[in-house]
């Protein structure tokens, strides 16, 4: 969990009052007061100190509750702390973390923004807000938030010149052997937050530099974190000096459109490096991929290797061009892979997958699923299409995957459910028991599940709403608390964010969706 600076600071009444007789005058009947202060001033300072001590204790309790998974309790305690002191940044950090765990993205981001307004150097707040901003595709802002936090890490550090690592041991830092100067200790959480943003935006200079700082600076980190950092850095290094990556040529492109019932992935005809092929669009995969057979056919040379967390080792290459009618996507960094596993619902094996890194650079992808047509634009839309509902698209970072999520409601309920957008369950919509019951349904409605071993109950959903756009009457599947839905549990366990279900292929087929990944938005229409 995040650490909180002010909680660790010693706060005692004695420090705030008088610590030596030399600084005090004697007034009245034996009451000592600091020189220049009235008795009323002293009492006011004493009350202020008591309040601050109480607030700090509440923050510790809220943080402990959050660490134990009791986010409702943590949120209530944080609110109590803010009632005592509405200007306490750490209380807002805990509130933001609790709201994140509850699946309230907007409230979480609002609380964390407030924390950073009050204390721009707050470590826990900076790391958490950076995560939220990356999830909303606000990568530049996520990096800017971290700058004062990282600057504060070196406060009080006395640097000196150095030649080798050992030269900085006495000052507690590390030697930058290129700059030949001792630098302060590196905290991995802030640097990892930087690298995740640089990785998504394909910054081949700053990303590896951050990774070098982590390893040369001896930052304490879990093995899994080190593995993720190393894999990201190796991927970026392979494309250093290769020019601008993911370049869009042309204003508008068009194509046919399919939706794979086995993977939930959108696909279209494309010409890859001059070869006709099938292109998949997958924000779930961070990196783009090219099928090994196609890469060999095009004579694409591997530029390096990377071992990605939970995914394995891959050779990487640069796809020269992916062309749709009217638009070209050039210089696409990609993993070389066998794409058969991604092509189970296609007549032929896909040649390329455009992952989140590439999709982020495209202005919009308009998927008209009922009419099976695709439109790609270089520029992002300036406004929603007429009659469309604008919804946020949050990308939940699993380090090896990015899970696309958007808010929905069911059956005219006001309860918001964050759902994984584009899954391949057989039903139109899949829900957790918690989200289904919070949407106005009764426990008896999910008794006697048809699949008791897996805890699955079939239900009829009157409507699924994306803001003002509603899709009526469809089959749903509810996962009971035990054993639960494993993919949703995976996301919740890693990211800490409460996902309540899936929007599946059967529902997507009814919709026209404009994906604006670079803006963190989608627009939904019901043709």
From TrEMBL:
TPR repeat placement: 89-122
InterPro entries: TPR-like_helical_dom_sf (IPR011990), TPR_rpt (IPR019734)
Alphabetical keyword list: TPR repeat
Top-rank lineage group of the source organism: Bacteria
Protein name in the entry: Tetratricopeptide repeat protein
Organism: Enhygromyxa salina
């Amino acid at each position: 969990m995040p650490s909180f600076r002010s909680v660790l600071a010693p706060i005692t009444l004695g420090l705030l009052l008088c610590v030596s007789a030399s600084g005090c005058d004697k007034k009245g009947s034996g009451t000592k007061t600091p020189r220049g202060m009235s008795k009323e001033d002293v009492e006011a300072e004493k009350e202020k100190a008591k309040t601050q001590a109480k607030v700090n204790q509440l923050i510790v309790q809220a943080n402990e509750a959050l660490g134990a998974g009791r986010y409702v309790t943590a949120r209530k305690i944080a609110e109590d702390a803010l009632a005592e002191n509405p200007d306490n940044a750490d209380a807002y950090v805990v509130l933001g973390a609790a709201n994140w765990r509850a699946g309230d993205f907007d409230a979480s981001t609002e609380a964390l923004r407030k924390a950073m307004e009050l204390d721009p150097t707050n470590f826990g707040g900076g790391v958490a807000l950076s995560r939220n901003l990356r999830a909303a595709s606000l990568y530049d802002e996520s990096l800017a938030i971290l700058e004062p936090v990282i600057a504060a890490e070196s406060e009080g550090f006395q640097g000196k010149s150095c030649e080798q690592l050992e030269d900085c041991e006495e000052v507690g830092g590390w030697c930058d052997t290129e700059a030949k100067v001792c630098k302060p200790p590196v905290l991995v959480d802030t640097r990892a937050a930087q690298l995740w943003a640089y990785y998504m935006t394909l910054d081949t200079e700053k990303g590896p530099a951050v990774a070098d700082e982590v390893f040369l600076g001896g930052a304490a980190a879990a093995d899994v974190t080190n593995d993720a950092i190393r894999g990201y850095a190796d991927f970026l290094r392979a494309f250093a000096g290769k020019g601008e990556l993911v370049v869009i040529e042309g204003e508008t492109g068009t194509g046919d459109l399919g939706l794979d019932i086995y993977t939930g992935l959108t696909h279209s005809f494309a010409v890859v490096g001059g070869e006709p092929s099938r292109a998949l669009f997958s924000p779930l995969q961070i990196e783009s991929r090219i099928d090994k057979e196609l890469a060999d056919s095009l004579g694409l040379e591997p530029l390096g290797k990377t071992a990605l967390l939970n995914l394995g080792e891959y050779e990487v290459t640069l796809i020269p061009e992916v062309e749709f009618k009217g638009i070209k996507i050039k210089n696409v960094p990609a993993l070389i892979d066998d794409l058969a596993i991604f092509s189970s619902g296609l007549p032929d094996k896909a040649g390329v997958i455009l992952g989140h890194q590439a999709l982020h650079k495209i202005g919009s992808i308009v998927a008209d699923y009922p009419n099976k047509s695709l439109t790609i634009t270089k520029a992002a839309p300036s406004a929603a299409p007429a009659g469309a509902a604008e919804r946020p698209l949050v990308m939940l970072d699993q380090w090896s995957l990015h899970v696309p999520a958007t808010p929905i409601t069911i059956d005219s309920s006001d309860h918001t459910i964050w759902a994984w957008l584009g899954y391949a369950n057989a039903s139109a919509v899949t829900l957790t028991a918690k989200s289904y019951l919070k949407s106005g349904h009764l426990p008896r409605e999910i008794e006697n599940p048809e699949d008791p071993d897996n805890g699955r109950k079939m239900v009829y959903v009157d409507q699924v709403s994306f803001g003002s756009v509603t899709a009526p009457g469809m089959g749903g599947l509810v996962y009971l608390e035990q054993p639960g839905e494993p993919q949703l549990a995976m996301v919740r366990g890693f990211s800490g964010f409460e996902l309540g279900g899936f929007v599946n292929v059967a529902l997507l087929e009814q919709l026209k969706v404009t994906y604006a990944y670079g803006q963190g938005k989608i627009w939904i229409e019901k043709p």
